[in-house]
Model the fold of this input.
Amino acid sequence: MILFSSMFLYEYPVEEIARACRLAGYDGIEFWIETPHYWIDMDYRKVESVREWVKSVHCAVLDLNPCSVNHEVAEVTLKTNLHAVSVAAKLGVSMTIHAGKRSAAREPVREDYEANERYFRILSRYAKIKGTRLLLENSEPRINYLCRDFDEVLECAERFGFGITFDVNHALKNGDANRYVQALDLIENVHVSGYDERGRHVAARNNGKVRDVLVELRDAGYEGMVTVELDDLGYGYMDYGKKIDELRKEREFLEKIFRR
Done:
């Protein structure tokens, strides 16, 4: 199943994002809960109107951090993503989540790990009540981020009963992408993109390292969701038609690997 992240079309209403699925030939959308057309009023009817296209949900991350030294930020992060779990539950799909980070640009300390564990514990319990599968994404390899290394991602996933969303871009930058095939039984979503000189998510089809990782996953038997995750800031101005064309090219690249 080949999806794309709704945030690539952040400036459009959900109906136009769904139309992009048809025009670019995708199976569906990974719906970021912060997609502006929904986020502005959180009117669930908007998501319901395109539910046939929503195959997964992505948690809220903008301006949020469950490990923040500002406890109000940590609490609103939890509250916001409990809401996201409820949306995923109504749609009957899984949800990708992120670990937190130390507020300062320094290595995380005990208090950060404790705050993150509290967040994961509450979120996982609520998700079990709602019948929603949570997938932990490996973080960007920044000094203050938790769950950036394979071993930590795997340990948290096993301890809290999460699946894994494997972000190839993040793992390649972290130098441990090839280790994730060891956790193939836990991987249920794969985020696919290349990266530019500023680390932004751009086309994967031009990156041989990304292709090699995807081929390794395919050869190991991976059959789960594959999600194209692009950032238009890495491209410059793109109108709706140009974004459709870019999505189509990425879908064709992935189909050559996974749908031989």
Remarks:
- DSSP finds nine helices and ten strands in the chain.
- The two ends are 14 Å apart (CA to CA).
- The chain has a mean pLDDT of 97.
